[in-house]
Design brief:
Blueprint lengths: L1 H29 L3 H61 L1
Organism: Elysia marginata
Keywords: Membrane, Transmembrane, Transmembrane helix
Protein name: ABC transmembrane type-1 domain-containing protein
């Protein structure tokens, strides 16, 4: 549930960043005055920072999910091996 909410937030941020980039790109291409270029560069820096933060968050989430999956798989394998060994011991004792 928490991961889904985080993914939704990341998707919304990415959509907002894309919209800002598209709108900023169209306005700066039609407007080539010095004031718009200076504000555009600051907007581009902010957009770049937001994109970097989003990418870092996505990478961290993916790494956490992979680690959790690996831990779960290892635990399941260990439990299955323990059960196999105990079943073999019980069968040997029955004979």
């Amino acid at each position: 549930m928490r991961i889904n909410t985080l993914v939704e937030v990341v998707v919304v941020v990415v959509v907002v960043v894309v919209v800002v980039v598209v709108v900023d790109g169209s306005s700066s291409s039609s407007n080539s005055s010095s004031s718009s270029s200076s504000s555009g560069s600051s907007i581009e820096v902010i957009v770049l920072l937001v994109v970097v933060v989003v990418v870092v968050v996505v990478v961290v989430v993916v790494v956490v999910v992979v680690v959790v999956v690996v831990v779960v798989v290892v635990v399941v394998v260990v439990v299955v091996e323990i059960v196999k060994v105990t079943v073999m011991k019980v069968k040997k004792n029955d004979l």
